[in-house]
User: Fold this.
Amino acid sequence: MLKMSAALIAAIACLASAPAMAQSNEYRQQLDAQLQASRTQFQGEGYSVAAGPFTGALPAGGKERFTLPVEQGVSYKIVGICDNDCTDVDMRVFNLNGENIGEDVLDDDVPIVELQPTGTGTVQLEANMIACSAEPCYHAIEVYWKR
Assistant:
């Protein structure tokens, strides 16, 4: 009887997690499709993927930071995307002194920041989820460069 109960509990746990896994896969597919469209666009402009995707999940009003090494003399395009429940996400780039050196704070869900560093080092990418209708909203940031 105890073995049957353990098996039943395991089966119920698997069934309970199935909707969450399906939902996670749905969001992953949304992000993957948008990332592929961005790659196609930027590769057509002579850029290649330099870093990412950096992914996360944020509620409306939530912020998340990622560190990125950059090189002087290289042109970067940094694109943010989010799932279909998101209607506005902003992105900012800060240098080591905490100064804002690039941003896209337009009312849209695909922020793009162009960056041409004046030195080699690291920067902080900040994603800010402005509007999310079904929290959390899943997002990704991918970095492209042209050398």
